Each structure stands twice: as C-alpha cells, then as structure tokens.
Amino acid sequence: MERESTWVSDQNVSLVTDLYQLTMLQAYWREGMDGEATFSLYSRRLPEHRNFMLACGLDDVLHYLETLHFSPDGLEYLAGLGSFSSDFLSWLGGFRFRGEVRAVPEGTPVFPQEPLLEVTASLPEAQVVETFIMNQVHFQTVAASKAVRVVEAAGGRTVVDFGLRRIHGVDAGLKGARAFYVGGVAATSNVLAGQVYGIPVSGTMAHSYIQAHPHEESAFRAFTALYPDSTLLVDTYDTLEGVRKVVRLHQELGDEFRVRGIRLDSGDLATLAREARAILDEGGLEKVKIFASGGLDELSVEQMVEAGAPVDGFGVGTRMSVSADAPSLDMAYKLISYDGEGRLKLSRGKGILPGRKQVFRQEGEGGVFRDVVARNGEEVPGRPLLRTVMREGRRLPEGQVPLEAIREYATREVAALPPRIRSLVPADPPFPVEISRELLAYQNAVAERFSSG
Amino acid sequence: MERESTWVSDQNVSLVTDLYQLTMLQAYWREGMDGEATFSLYSRRLPEHRNFMLACGLDDVLHYLETLHFSPDGLEYLAGLGSFSSDFLSWLGGFRFRGEVRAVPEGTPVFPQEPLLEVTASLPEAQVVETFIMNQVHFQTVAASKAVRVVEAAGGRTVVDFGLRRIHGVDAGLKGARAFYVGGVAATSNVLAGQVYGIPVSGTMAHSYIQAHPHEESAFRAFTALYPDSTLLVDTYDTLEGVRKVVRLHQELGDEFRVRGIRLDSGDLATLAREARAILDEGGLEKVKIFASGGLDELSVEQMVEAGAPVDGFGVGTRMSVSADAPSLDMAYKLISYDGEGRLKLSRGKGILPGRKQVFRQEGEGGVFRDVVARNGEEVPGRPLLRTVMREGRRLPEGQVPLEAIREYATREVAALPPRIRSLVPADPPFPVEISRELLAYQNAVAERFSSG
Questions:
Q1: Which residues of A touch B24 (CB under 8 A)?
Q2: B107 phi/psi in degrees, rounded to 5
Q3: How many CB pairs under 8 A join A and B?
Q4: Which of A211, A425, A452, B126 could form a disulfide with B121 if both were Cys (CB 3.0 to 4.6 A apart)?
C-alpha cells in the first residue's frame, strides 16, 4: 500500500488551511474584492492565572509568507473537490503573498488587546494566510509563555526541555523547543532542534539503560567509562541506594571520577534531594550536582526552590510541553480595516478594535508600568512595539533576528515587567493596558456606521 | 539570512529524538549489548474524568520504523557534538530497524496497564525509536480519545473538526484531523488532511467575509450566488437579525434558494438556536439546518443536546484540538524484557509488568465486561487484542488497515463498551482490568531477582 507523505513542507503547506479560506478566496476573486485589508492577530483575554504572554512564532510566519504557493499536486486535489472553477485554480497557481507585516519582536511580553502582528495586503492575500499564521503564532506563544514561568520559578537554576515525547506532534516538538529556549530554557533534549536552531542539546540516561544491565553498579560503570562527565539516573530501584552507589563509584575510580550529577525522577523530590545531598557531601562529592525531573511544572519547581531543596537543575517535560494549565490562548486574527475603512464585528464578547494600531510601552525607573494601545500614527509617550518586518512580501532586516538575540531580548523585557506580573500568582489588578481616546472614538464611529449592518 | 528547513521529513526524522537515546545507543553498541529487548507502550493511569482511551498513531509508527535512517547531514551534526566516535557514526549510517511490532489496532478502546504496542528488536533498535513512537502515539491517542467523547455527546448529530488554527503545530493539525476522524468526527476543515487521508473537508464562511462587504445582506447574496448550498454565518452583527436576513434572501431568491444551513458562533447558543429555529420555520425554512460553533467541547455539546436545543451539527475547535481537559496521558515506553529475562523497575508509583503480554477482551450478550492482561502465550478466555503488525522491519497486512476500516472498527468497539464507560461521567468503579495470576507471579519472581539491584 503506497501512502501519501504525511509530512508538511514548503510544497504542501499552502493546504494547511481551513477549507473556508479557499472558498472565501474564490469568492473575493470572483467579486473583484481585492482592496487593501488589514488583519490583526491578538488575544482577547489571558488564561486564568496568567499575567502576560510571550510573543513567539514570527519567524515561521515570515518564511511561510515568503514562500507560499500552491503546487500542481495541491491544485489537482482542489479541482477534485468540485467547488473551484478552473480559471480560479489557474489564478491560484500564480498566487503569491506580496503584502506587509508589522509585528512585535519575538520574545516581547504582550497583553490582551495588543496586536502580536498586523497583516496588510489585498483582501485575498491577507485572508488566506490566517490559519497557518494562527496555528504557528498561537502554539509558539503558548509554549514560550509557559516556559518563561518555569524559568522564573527556577530562579536562576538550569531548566532543560524534556518535552519531546509528549508534546503534540513533531512540528510542535521542533518549534516548541525553540519557543522554550526563547522563554529562557537552557537546553533541549530534542536533537533536531539542536541541528536546526543551534540550541544546546542535553540528556542523561534512561531507566531502561539501568534495567538492561545486570546491576545498577555495572550500568553506572559502563556509562561513565564512555561518558565520564555524565549525569547518572539513581531512582531505578532504590533512590538513596543508587546515590550510595555513585559514592562507591567515586571510591573505585578515584581521580578518574568525573561524574557531573545525579538525576532524581520519582518520589518526593525535595526530600530525596536533601537526603541525596547529604550522602554525596559525606562521600566527598560536594561538586556533584542534583538534577530533578518527573512531572514537574512551574508550581512544583517554585515549591522546591522556596523550600530550599538542594536541586541545581530541572528537567521539565510533559506539563511544560502541552502547557497543561493553559493549552490554548483566546487568540484571533480579525479583519480591522478594508478598503480604507475600519471594520469590526459586534458578536457578543468578541468586539474588535478597528483600524491599524500601535502599542506604546511606558517605562519609568522601576521598569515598565503601562501599555497604551493606540491608532497607528498617533503620538503617544512610550516605546512603540510593532515594527514593519515585511514589505511587498519580502522580509526586512527587522524580521531576521538571530535566535540568541531574541532570547536575550526576551530575558530583558521580562525582567523589566513589574514583579507582581512576573510572579506565578495572578495579578489583581492585571497589568494596565489602556486604549487611547482616539482609538476609542474611532471604534465608536465605526460601530455607528456598521450597527445597522 | 539562509535558514535551515524547519520541516520534519523522512530525511531528518531520525533526529526527532531525545539526545540520550543516541548516547545510550552508542553505549549499547560499544558494550556489545545487542540482545533481544522488548519495550511496551502503555498508560499507567487515566486522566481524571476519563473512562477509556482510543488507541491511535500506529500507522505513522510503522512508516517511521520502515524508513528510519540517519542521513549524512544528520551524522555530520552529531559528529560536531563531540560525544560520538567516528566508528559509531559510521555504524549509525547503516542503521535500520529490523524488529517486530505487536499492537492493538488503531481505534481500539484501551485501559491502564494495557500495552498499545510492544516492540521487540535488538536492544539498540528497540531503544532508539522510543521518542518518536511516544510522540506520535501519545498525541494521536490524546486526540482520538477526546474526539470520541465529543461524538458521543453529540448523539448522532454531525461533528466537524475546526481545530487547525489552535492545535499545536502543523503535524498535530494533520495527524489530529485523522485521529478525530477515527474518533467519529464527520469532517475536517483541514484541507491537507483531506488530500493526504481522503477525509471529507468542510467549511462555511468567516466573519471577515461579512465584514468586508458593505452589508450583511450583500455578503449573503454574493456568497450564495457562488455557493448556493452553503452555510451562512449569522452572528457578525446581530444574530437574530442575521437569521431574518436569511429568510429575506429566501423571499428574494424563491426556488433558487438552496442555502443548507446557518451557523451560530457566539452568545448563548442553545437559546439562539431555539429563536433562530422559530424564525426559520416561520419563514418556511424548516429544511435549513442550524450549525453551532465557538468554544465548544463535549460538555457544552452534551448540555445542548440534553436541553433539546435544535442544533443539527457542531463545529468543534480549540478545546477538542488541544484536548483541553486532558492534554497529556501518563503514557510510557518501558523495557519489559532483555536477553530472555523479564525486566522491571521499582521507582515509586511507576512499577512495571515484566515480559511480553497479551490483552484479552471478554464479551457477553451485553457487550464487553472485562479485560485481562496476561503473559503472551497464556490461554485466557476472550478476544486477544494485540496482533503482530511488523516483522523484520516490514509491515504485515495487519499493519495496513485503510482509514475507513479503522473508523468503523472504532465505532463498533466503542459501542460495545458498557454505557457507564462511554458516558462523560467518571465511572466508579472503573472498567475492570484484571492482571492474570500467571503475570502477577512472574512480576513477583522478576522483582525478587532485581530487588537487590
């Protein structure tokens, strides 16, 4: 049985879209509706318990927009659906994105109502890219926003991404590793992420390695013979007994002993870390670090840190990788202007701020204290966050930021937030985001024009 | 700035793995540990509120195992890490998977302690495939297990997957659409899933389409001129006013009117559905169906169905796509036998049932009533669930089931479960899964052998 490839690539990513994008595209084309449109991607509210998001995913969006095209194979599939005319499909074969993108840099803390990006292009171009843009920016922002919490909780201790096995698919595995790194994680277990992004890769050993050897000791001996400065997993049978075996290995090897750490992966990690620390110190292994993993998230990491557990690093997997407490954000890509006029919709609870916007971040000596969302072009005090990153379908230098620079920028921007916003505790009141009077007045004017529908 | 491809494909998927798989691989190779090993993939417990899982993801696992190889490009990256010797990397260049896989068919309801699959191969081969197998089976099982709940709640009404924009990445988008379909969803909005898997694709129209037109009426007229039998979105400005415009469109078009349905996407959907139904019926549009969407999950769908809301179909997106109530499963891939001997570990709360196993599903007149997990080869009443699907690295016919057959099988198997297990309410007691006495005795024997570590 021959099967279609189940991998997404530059060749077929144009079909990673909701069907209605393509039926609307044909309608716009047929109706000659190719006026300039702006769509805004923003979040309507924060998940419970969250104080901010960390924007991520722009790099993949810009690559997509630069390379978007419909392959003959894809057009043939669409033809078979029976909803698309051959003249439309022939036009679609030459379709390219030639619009403009303004966006906040990756790694920017963002709040509800603030655009992460705005796409301005002919209506068909700006519309049809919605699904992919949402898919990437939503997930990567979910991931970066979760990681930054874990990193904050760890208070300077190392955090390593162990999430690949339970993250949702391989694309999330790759982009998630990058987003976690933007959020401040030090390394990933994902080898491909290491190759593609140059992120440091890291890993220890699995229980199966211990189990496959006749004794825990022989496993430790064999592994350290090959990797002298490795981290040994000590909880396969009896955790403290495992730690004692590391001490005995030191006695055996003497100066050859270069084991860097032990890993605890089950049980009461804080208590075990204290007991393990005592055993190691007593055995003269003060330099051997303790690494904890197993079902961790920002709350359990914070608890251990606050309790003074002698843990030097954390391997955080599943609960970070799926963003267990907030696996989705209330993010939307909405038409805010068409043919020179602001647009909105009035659906209950889903109101839109019309027109192109800018976000001004206001900082004083104590750091950031307020954001103002204003109309684009308004003069408002503060640092404007949205920059033009693509023009006529080509990336500008502002849209080509190296990953290390993004990560450093994110660290600085997060550090500038008020401590109560950085904390894991929900901030009440939330971070102040004001809508400028000019923008509110514009919203009212547009609403009046459209309220008769 | 040239960038590496950020797509996963057959060429680089071998690096979609945790670094420790490769360091352990080199250690096994160096130590000559190439005895036969069996790993078992199973779930240790169910998420809260869940009564069963629906196994999914085997097809991608088997394709991966058949095609797994390390490309020159990947080997070069590994060489640069400094942990791998050139003789090992040269061996890795010729590495192929030549083992055996036994698995429950995709679409099988499974319970804790029951293997979804068992891989038997030389230790290096069986170990190194862990991360990818986990990544795919975990996510696809998460997705199928969520969808089956939504479909049960809909009680025969149509459910369409609208989740692509907020599902975690494009791989999850594609594999998720397939998993939702296995779980009983009728169609997906994801066009690529339609092309790759032949799943029916479906879609209506977006708010932006309405907004871009001068009036709601003109949007409805233009869209139905091109797509006469479409579903019109009525909640952009005032929902019931939108419904009345559909009635007026009918008066305008007369016999030409072929609109199939309306979509409600905001507000109190059950109440709006009743009011919309009344307006439509009064206007002679009894045949026009009502489709509801917007923040739905199995609980809100069940509520609407139980309240008798006149909704004919549901578009379910975010909360299904990220499996909001249970975005991860406690799934593990564990070494259960090496070199002819059962293996286990004793880590607290993470005990292992050693040795190869079989699951027997016992059925009576009222359907399935009990599963027994036994040693492979044991004679136990009931239908054995695990079958050999791959041998010597090649798929057997049992591992090549067409998607439609998988979906029908899943529907039958779910229908055979006791109603209290199919229900959305947590079953207490849970579905009975017994461990055979022979397996328990074997576990004790192995535990005694390893307890001294």
A1: 205-206, 208-209
A2: 90, 5
A3: 382
A4: B126
Same domain, A216 and A135: no
Sorting pLDDT into bands at 50, 70 and 90, what band is B381? Answer: very high
Do A372 and A256 lie in a common domain? Answer: no
DSSP A298-348: HHHHHHHHHTT----EEEE-HHHHTTTT-S---EEEEEEEETTEE-----T
Judgement on whether residues A279 and A368 belong to the same structural domain of the protein:
no
The answer to whether B406 and B106 are in contact (CB under 8 A) is yes
Q: Do B17 and A191 touch (CB under 8 A)?
A: yes
Are A290 and A341 found together in one domain?
no
**What pLDDT, on the 0 to 100 scale, is given for residue A1?**
42
Helix (H) or strand (E) holding B147: helix B130-154
**Cα–Cα distances in Å, from B1 out to A402, B40, B77?**
9, 44, 20
Q: Do A53 and A26 share a structural domain?
A: yes
Distance from C-alpha of B444 to C-alpha of B450, rounded to nearest angstrom: 10
- Domain CATH code at residue A253: 3.20.20.70
Please tell me if residue B315 touches chain A, with a CB cutoff of 8 Å.
Answer: no
Q: Tokens in use for B28?
A: 């096994």
- Which residue does chain A place closest to B339, by CA atoms? A212
Provide the token pair at B19. Answer: 């670094």
Give CA separation, B285 vs B172, B226, B249, B262, in Å: 39, 20, 11, 11
Name the average pLDDT for chain B: 95
Q: Is the per-residue pLDDT at A350 higher than 70?
A: no
B170 touches chain A (CB under 8 A): yes
Give a yes or no: residue A150 inside a domain.
no
Do A441 and A366 fall into the same domain? yes
* Residues in chain A closer than 8 A to B33 (CB atoms): 212
Domain span including residue A201: 181-318
What percent of chain B is modeled with pLDDT above 90? Answer: 93
* Res A342: pLDDT: 80
Among A332, A22, A129, A123, which Cα is nearest to B212's?
A: A123
Contact predicate A422/A149, CB 8 Å: no
Model confidence at A273: pLDDT above 90: yes
Token output for B436:
């055979």
Whether B330 maps to a domain, the answer reads yes
A contacts of B453 (beta carbons < 8 Å): 215-216, 236-238, 241-242
Give the gap in angstroms from C-alpha B244 to the nearest C-alpha of chain A: 12
pLDDT in tens, B284-330: 999 999 999 999 999 999 999 999 999 999 999 999 999 999 999 99
* More confidently predicted of A452 and B65: B65
Distances (CA, A) of B357 to B42, B62, B109: 11, 20, 17
**Total domain count, chain A:** 2
pLDDT at res. A447: 85
Inter-chain residue contact B346 with A174, CB threshold 8 Å: no
The DSSP bridge pattern shows strands A367-375 and A433-435 to be parallel
The complex's ipTM works out to 0.97
Q: Which helix (H) or strand (E) holds B110?
A: strand B109-110
**DSSP secondary structure letter of residue B36:** E
Give the gyration radius of chain A's Cα atoms: 26
Q: What phi-psi label fits residue A7: left (phi over 0), alpha (psi between -120 and 50 degrees) or beta?
A: beta
Interval A214-223: pLDDT, tens: 999 999 999 9
- For B218, other C-beta atoms within 10 Å of its C-beta total 12
> pTM of the prediction?
0.97
